[in-house]
């Protein structure tokens, strides 16, 4: 996310004094709840969905993720790149290209 967007999320939370409710466990629960609402957008038809609703639910997930990053003092770029390093090692192109198999089945 862009710095301005992250600052807007932080300001929103701060202005409402909601940090007091943002224990890591509560934020993790909220991420799962919002992710379930995102999945619900595709529940009965994965071709005919309301993109506006998808965007709202996806944004909710992302906002809660940013709140959890802040609460834990983590940097999104750092943790995503570390995970991508792991994924690239587990799923080398030569073995994984065009396959959906888990790394231990390649």
Could you list some keywords that capture this structure?
106 residues; mainly alpha; 2 domains; globular; Helix Hairpins
Textual characterization of the structure:
The chain is globular, with a radius of gyration of 17 Å. Helix content is 67%, strand content 0%. It has two domains: 1-74, MazG-like (Helix Hairpins), CATH 1.10.287.1080; 75-106, no CATH class. The chain has helices at 3-15, 24-40, 51-72, 76-90, 93-96.
Give a brief description.
The chain has 106 residues and is mainly alpha-helical.
Topology:
Blueprint: H1 3-15, H2 24-40, H3 51-72, H4 76-90, H5 93-96
Q: Assign an overall shape.
A: globular
> Which structural class best describes the helix and strand composition?
mainly alpha
Give the CATH H-level superfamily of the largest domain. Answer: MazG-like
Sequence of secondary-structure elements: HHHHH
Tell me the fraction of residues in β-strands, as a range.
Answer: under 5%
> What is the second-level CATH architecture of the largest domain?
Orthogonal Bundle
The structural domain count equals 2
CATH class call of the largest domain = Mainly Alpha
Uncertain segments: none
Structural Rg: 17 Å
Q: Separation of termini?
A: 33 Å
Mean pLDDT: 96
- Helix content estimate: 55-70%
In this structure, how is the largest beta sheet organized? none
